[in-house]
């Protein structure tokens, strides 16, 4: 049945797997990693479906009753996959299943790791199957949405039993100490009731032990929610980051600064702050008990709470303003540090390197001053808390003495009210701590959300293969504060063509190549692949037939083999040929490099030419019909350059398209056509022999 389900694939794919019950649940969990609530719901649904395979029709009716969109089908696969939904569970036999996911207009088989196989499902298959098709719960992720109770509440609700019941016990238990003090002072002291004293003491010891256990459970439940929300946040951020066509505004340093602030402020969703938030409603309980013991002291306690709240709000506004200013200054400081690290050799060797030091001192001074002002304002909050605790104790005792003198209150009750009033002041202090962290959280989330554009929601057209026809029509691109990078660029490329883009630095060659790779959004015009607009083709489809190597070789920290295979170089023959074409094979033979070699960040332990070979081999190892190379010989020695020019033509398929930018005369020998650019315009387009002769 499996072989009949898969549509023909241009490249080898892993042999399909049927999943057992546990693998289905694991796959669903991985598939919904961004939305933990959806994962929990679907796990429950699939747990029942995989456990009771004989009554799927009845189970689907029950799911519909519970407002879960599901459909049951026992028919040819062609008809089953026309049912509305984007997640399908197919039953092969008892305990054996296949999971399908509808993504980017096609059905994919899903493995136990939640990842799709490289082939697609043949939607016209006549294979008879029994299946349940569901609408997968979706979440439209917004980073700033995490900084709202509406977004956090679904996750907190999953832990309401542990957090809610434990908070109720803990805060109700806080009444025991004041009551213990009241009983000891009023009943035990001076009466010699030592048996009563030790009974009360044993009860308090039991309470303390139970309280610690409850606090542990509550903290564990809250941190579990925090982990889920952090994973959900990072997963959503990663998906949005990959969906960006242009770099985030402000560059990498600003983005990393925003992410750092978001990560630090995300402590709000932790036991340190959420548990304080859970305790705050019990402020009313403590005030109520004070009122029951001595209502005049309730008036005093309420007045003190209102005074503290007013003064605290004024200080909190000041702290928020200073924190925002400090974050802005520190972001500029981090951005400048990123620029200097990227040009450290220039800073070390330039006579005017003092400019960097002066600018750094200026930013460091502003940062230190803004941080000091923020910390000073925050310390004022601590001073206010201590002062209000002291004032509360003094006033409660003073008023209590008059009540005792009027025989309206006992000493034990006064001690109890004083302890409860102190606890109330502590809750108000924790409220301001929560409010401050909440403000930090909202600001950081909003900045991160603002630095990333929302992914394009347009419907993509499936294009798993291409013939190689490229048509560029009136392409325009302009960067702010600069002349047009591309201006009314038009040309066409036929399958099998080898083409070079020539021009002076800044002519628009790299911008054009990035636009053809879908990495740069043009301001006007169109790029058509086989007559279909490039932006309408899913990125996952483009990866099947388009390979791109940037001008600056990109190398990641990790093994050399991981760097080479990250683009999907799983075909052993093509992988070996890519090593041969780029000359890495001879590097391995000589012992200078090896597949298991550990590379440092950005490949700092490689020479410039070796980094270029790694990046080039990675692009060639990727199965592709369109190969886009930006300065493939940059940094290569003449021998390596000559070897690449000799070997690359035999590596390319007959119908493969090669577009490259180059300043190498040797590399021009492998192209048939040249397009010359100047100032973003096409100034010449023709056969290589003709243009080289004219030039």
What does this structure look like?
This protein has 695 residues and is α+β, with helices and mostly antiparallel strands. The chain folds into three domains: 2-134, no CATH class; 143-451, ABC transporter type 1, transmembrane domain (ABC transporter transmembrane region fold), CATH 1.20.1560; 470-694, Rossmann fold, CATH 3.40.50.300. Helices cover 55% and strands 15% of the residues. The chain contains 24 helices and 18 strands. The protein has a six-stranded antiparallel β-sheet with strand order 1-6-2-3-4-5. Strands 12-15-16-9-17-18 form a six-stranded mixed β-sheet, sandwiched between helices. α7 packs antiparallel against α9.
Helix and strand layout, with pairings?
Layout: H1 2-5, H2 21-31, H3 36-51, H4 56-65, E1 70-76, H5 77-80, E2 87-93, E3 96-103, E4 106-110, E5 116-120, E6 128-134, H6 149-157, H7 160-173, H8 176-188, H9 194-242, H10 251-265, H11 274-279, H12 283-293, H13 295-342, H14 344-349, H15 354-405, H16 411-451, E7 470-478, E8 484-493, E9 498-502, H17 509-516, E10 524-529, E11 532-533, H18 539-545, E12 546-549, E13 558-559, H19 560-565, H20 572-582, H21 584-590, E14 598-599, H22 608-621, E15 626-630, H23 638-651, E16 657-661, E17 673-678, E18 681-687, H24 688-694
Parallel strand pairs: 9-16, 9-17, 12-15, 15-16
Antiparallel strand pairs: 1-6, 2-3, 2-6, 3-4, 4-5, 7-8, 7-10, 10-11, 13-14, 17-18
Helix pairs in contact: 2-3, 7-9, 8-9, 8-16, 10-13, 10-16, 12-13, 12-16, 13-15, 13-16, 15-16, 20-22, 20-23
């Amino acid at each position: 049945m499996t072989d009949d389900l898969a549509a023909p694939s241009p490249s080898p794919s892993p042999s399909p797997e049927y999943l057992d019950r546990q693998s289905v649940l694991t796959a669903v969990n991985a598939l919904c990693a961004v939305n933990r609530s959806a994962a929990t719901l679907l796990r429950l649904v699939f747990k029942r479906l995989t456990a009771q395979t004989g009554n799927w029709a009845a189970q689907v009716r029950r799911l519909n009753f519970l407002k879960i969109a599901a459909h049951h089908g026992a028919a040819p696969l062609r008809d089953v996959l026309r049912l509305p939904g984007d997640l399908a569970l197919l039953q092969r036999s008892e305990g054996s299943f296949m999971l399908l996911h509808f993504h980017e207009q096609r059905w994919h088989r899903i493995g136990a790791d939640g990842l799709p196989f490289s082939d697609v499902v043949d939607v016209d298959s006549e294979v008879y199957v029994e299946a349940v098709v569901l609408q997968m719960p979706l979440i439209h992720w917004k980073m700033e949405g995490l900084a709202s109770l509406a977004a956090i509440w679904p996750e907190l609700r999953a832990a309401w039993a542990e957090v809610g019941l434990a908070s109720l016990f803990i805060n109700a238990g806080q009444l025991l100490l004041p009551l213990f003090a009241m009983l000891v002072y009023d009943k035990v002291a001076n009466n010699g009731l030592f048996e009563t004293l030790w009974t009360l003491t044993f009860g308090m010891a039991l309470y303390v032990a139970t309280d610690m256990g409850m606090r542990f459970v509550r903290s564990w439940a809250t941190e579990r929610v925090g982990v889920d929300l952090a994973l959900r946040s990072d997963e959503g951020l990663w998906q949005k980051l990959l969906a960006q066509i242009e770099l985030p505004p402000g560059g990498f340093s600003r983005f990393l600064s925003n992410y750092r602030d978001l990560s630090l402020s995300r402590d709000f969703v932790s036991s340190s702050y959420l548990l304080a938030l859970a305790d705050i409603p019990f402020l009313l309980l403590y005030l109520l008990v004070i009122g029951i013991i001595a209502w005049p002291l309730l008036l005093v306690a309420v007045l003190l709470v209102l005074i503290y709240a007013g003064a605290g709000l004024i200080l909190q506004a000041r702290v928020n303003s200073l924190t925002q200013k400090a974050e802005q200054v520190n972001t500029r400081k981090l951005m400048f540090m990123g620029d200097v690290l990227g040009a450290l050799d220039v800073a070390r060797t330039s006579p005017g390197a003092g400019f960097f030091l002066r600018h750094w001192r200026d930013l460091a001074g502003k940062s230190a001053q803004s941080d000091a002002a923020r910390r000073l304002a925050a310390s004022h909050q601590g001073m206010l808390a201590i002062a209000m605790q002291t004032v509360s104790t003094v006033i409660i005792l003073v008023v209590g003495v008059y009540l005792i003198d009027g025989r309206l209150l006992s000493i034990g009750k006064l001690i109890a009210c004083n302890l409860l009033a102190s606890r109330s002041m502590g809750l108000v202090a924790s409220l301001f701590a929560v409010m401050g962290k909440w403000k930090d959280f909202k600001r950081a989330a909003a900045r991160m959300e603002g630095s990333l554009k929302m992914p394009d929601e347009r419907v993509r057209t499936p294009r798993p293969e291409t013939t190689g026809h490229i048509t560029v029509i009136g392409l325009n691109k302009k960067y702010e504060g600069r002349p047009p990078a591309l201006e009314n660029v038009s040309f066409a490329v036929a399958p099998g063509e080898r083409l070079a883009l020539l021009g002076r630095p800044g002519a628009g060659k790299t911008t054009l190549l990035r636009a053809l790779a879908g990495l740069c959004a043009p301001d006007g015009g169109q790029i058509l692949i086989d007559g279909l607009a490039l932006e309408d083709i899913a990125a996952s489809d483009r990866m099947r037939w388009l390979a791109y190597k940037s001008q600056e070789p990109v190398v990641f920290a990790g093994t050399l083999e991981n760097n080479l295979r990250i683009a999907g170089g799983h075909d052993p023959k093509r992988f070996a040929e890519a090593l041969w074409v780029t000359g890495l094979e001879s590097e391995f033979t000589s012992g200078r490099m090896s597949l298991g070699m550990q590379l440092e960040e950005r490949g700092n332990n490689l020479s410039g030419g070796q980094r270029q070979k790694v990046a080039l081999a990675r692009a060639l190892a990727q199965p592709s019909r369109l190969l886009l190379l930006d300065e493939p010989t940059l940094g290569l020695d003449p021998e390596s350059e000559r070897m690449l020019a000799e070997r690359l033509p035999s590596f390319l398929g007959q119908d493969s398209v090669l577009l490259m930018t180059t300043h190498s005369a040797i590399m021009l020998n492998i192209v048939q056509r040249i397009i010359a650019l100047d100032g973003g315009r096409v100034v010449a387009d023709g056969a290589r022999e003709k243009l080289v002769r004219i030039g």
